[in-house]
């Protein structure tokens, strides 16, 4: 069995040290477990290469600004992530989650750590098998992020209870995955993934202005898509757009690119040849 590795990070001192993942490291009154008050990222390490680190740091910095947390030190976090990878058992695919908590309220000191573990087997398998999806309304319209920044839409926070509840709902109703929609009918994102659809030679994804995360894997895919003759577009997508697309995928750092087989029980087209090409672009 592959064991995870842990690095605790002292943000104030700019240092880090390895820690025993089986021993207590976090105070029970830390605001991460008490309130979910913090931010995080998860990077994929494949073949010893950390993928998309700069994009993840850019998103972590956006989340920090949204949450009124200090600007993360990219150099410190790169070294901490590398140390977690080096301490990990040999593995084809590793996921490193690096986390910043607001810490213990009484002290004002942030808590931070990087935790490395093997990529889940089911996430790797889904790249071939695909997923069945249900659409669930998130309860906000597509302009909510602009009107109500305190909702933290578009920030990658530790508060994932709603996302996990939606995933459980999908599984209870015979599906594998959720794609959220806005109350005015716009396609948003999956609980832990970005939605991308193909229409001819164009890849489309929902506009981040709708209050969704900037997808780091989607950003890398869009950056490299012209290499294989594809154009890219940020757009307002609807359920009908997905049902009539030439292919639909959900993308994340851990899962990479996963084809969607059906939406609300209706089969959608798969383009496995193009999917393999896109996976190759992602490395």
Automatic annotation (TrEMBL):
Q: What Enzyme Commission number(s) does the record list for this chain?
A: 4.1.3.38
The first-level EC class reads lyase
Gene3D superfamilies associated with the record = 3.30.470.10, D-amino Acid Aminotransferase, subunit A, domain 2
Listed GO CC annotations: cytosol
GO terms, molecular function? 4-amino-4-deoxychorismate lyase activity
What keywords are assigned to this protein? Lyase
Which Gene Ontology terms describe the biological processes this protein takes part in?
Answer: carboxylic acid biosynthetic process
One Pfam family named in its UniProt record: Aminotran_4
Q: Does the keyword Lyase apply?
A: yes
Q: Does the keyword Acyltransferase apply?
A: no
InterPro entries per UniProt: Aminotrans_IV (IPR001544), Aminotransferase-like (IPR036038), BCAT-like_C (IPR043132), BCAT-like_N (IPR043131), Class-IV_PLP-Dep_Aminotrnsfr (IPR050571)
User: What family does the entry list?
Assistant: Belongs to the class-IV pyridoxal-phosphate-dependent aminotransferase family.
Which NCBIfam families does this chain map to? PRK07849.1-1 (NF005886)
Please state what the protein is called: 4-amino-4-deoxychorismate lyase
């Amino acid at each position: 069995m592959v064991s995870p590795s842990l690095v605790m990070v002292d943000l104030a001192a700019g240092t880090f040290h390895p820690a025993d993942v089986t021993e207590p490291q976090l105070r029970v009154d830390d605001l991460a477990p008490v309130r979910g008050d913090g931010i995080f990222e998860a990077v994929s390490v494949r073949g010893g290469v950390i993928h998309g680190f700069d994009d993840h740091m850019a998103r972590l910095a956006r989340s920090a600004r949204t949450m009124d947390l200090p600007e993360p030190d990219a150099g410190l976090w790169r070294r901490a992530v590398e140390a977690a990878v080096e301490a990990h058992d040999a593995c084809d695919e590793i996921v490193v989650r690096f986390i910043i908590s607001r810490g213990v309220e009484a002290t004002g000191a942030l808590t931070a750590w990087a935790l490395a573990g093997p990529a889940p087997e089911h996430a790797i398998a889904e790249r071939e098998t695909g997923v069945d999806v249900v659409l669930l309304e998130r309860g906000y319209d597509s302009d909510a992020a602009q009107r109500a920044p305190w909702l933290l839409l578009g920030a990658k926070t530790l508060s994932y209870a709603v996302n996990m509840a939606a995933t459980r709902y999908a599984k209870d109703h015979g599906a594998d995955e959720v794609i959220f929609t806005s109350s005015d009918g716009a396609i948003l994102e999956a609980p832990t993934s970005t939605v991308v659809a193909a229409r001819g030679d164009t890849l489309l994804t929902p506009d981040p202005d709708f209050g969704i995360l900037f997808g780091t894997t989607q950003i890398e895919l869009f950056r490299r898509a012209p290499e294989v003759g594809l154009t890219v577009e940020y757009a307002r997508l609807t359920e009908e757009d997905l049902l009539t697309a030439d292919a639909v995928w959900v993308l994340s750092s851990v899962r990479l690119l996963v084809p969607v087989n059906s939406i609300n029980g209706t089969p959608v087209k798969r383009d496995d040849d193009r999917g393999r090409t896109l996976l190759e672009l992602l490395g």
